[in-house]
Amino acid sequence: MLPRRSLLAVGLLLALTGCSHLLPGSGPSRDEIEQSGKQPGAAAVQIIDIDSNVARQLLVQRRFKLFSETLGRQRSTSNIGPGDTLEVNIWEAPPATLFGGGSVDPRAPSTVRATTLPEQMVDRDGFITVPFAGRIAAGGKTLQAVEDAVKAQLKGKANQPEVVVRLLRNVSSTVTVVGEVTASVRMPLTAGGERLLDALAAAGGVRQPVSKMTLQVTRGKQYQSLPLDLVIRDPEQNVPLQPGDVITAMFQPLSFTALGATGKNEEIPFEAQGISLAQALARAGGVNDARSDAGGIFIFRLEQEQALTWPRQPVATTPEGLVPVVYRLDLRDPASFFVMQSFPVSNKDVIYISNAPATELQKFLNLVFSVIFPISATKALFP
Q1: Kind plus residue range of the DSSP H or E element containing 256
Q2: DSSP-derived 3-state class of residue 72
Q3: 54 within a domain of the structure (yes/no)
Q4: Which CATH number does the domain housing residue 178 bear?
Q5: Distance in angstroms (rounded) separating the CA atoms of residues 5 and 3
Q6: Which domain holds residue 187?
Q7: 52-75: string of b/e by CB count within 10 Å (b at 16+)?
Q8: pLDDT band for position 234 (50/70/90)?
Q9: Which of 169, 203, 224 is the last residue of a domain?
């Protein structure tokens, strides 16, 4: 028959075993997470093992659409538009019959008279008015085309007319730069063909670190975004601008949260161009060798329903139409170290590393012994 002291210890051990869920911990165990994927109904989550195929599918979806592919590389033409202000200069050979009252142009022979007309603003229909030539269509045309049109209308009225048209103020061929820049600006485009970074420089540059900035270009009903550092590194993405483009510099502080048996538990920022799971684990201090379960690396994420082929049907979604997913990685498999180099981390991901089963057992035994030893010592003092 067991001594009363031993019976007390066994009874206490059995009682604590039934209350093991009350032990302190940083989160669920690997088994508890995997069981959550077997719950029926809306509470179920998708458990996906990370392999090269899953990483490849997610990478394809997250691949940036390049400006050079969507916006093109064609330079804009410097056409006149409504609101632009033009200056029309007319020269007439002697004897001047139509514009004889003009001033002598010092750059031309002394007998040649030049007439500079009052500034002409292109009206909303795209026309200007030139004396003796009437209404001249200027909207959508180049300066050379307007000169030719005025000259043609004066032919037979003026004596060998020559026409030069200058653009004084350009308000139709402009781009707008807004967002996290030093000063929002509306920049006119010239025949030189300004590019994306030219507009950013005209706005005084960005106010936040380049690695955390994204540039969005809106052109008509189309818009496209790229990380700023990618535009800087790849000259192909520094595309020519078109009239009416809107460039928005956006500050996007992306981050993930590291929890569980990692080197540090905190929210960790990362760059706009994104990072891999391998980089994320390194920034979180890696796995804690003293307590982590190498087979229990989990990434909690809400995915678009069309992101992958889901193993559980029907697919449970959140009110926003997103699928709760837990990606699972086993670092005991050497191949996983290659896979996690291509697995992309998303904004607001939660990376969780579960405790090893031996760690939970150790905590349980520590609790048991912390109770039994004082009782044993008391019995020894008072037999």
Answers
A1: strand 254-260
A2: coil
A3: yes
A4: 3.10.560.10
A5: 5
A6: 67-75+173-251
A7: eebbeebeeeeebebbeeebeeeb
A8: very high
A9: 169
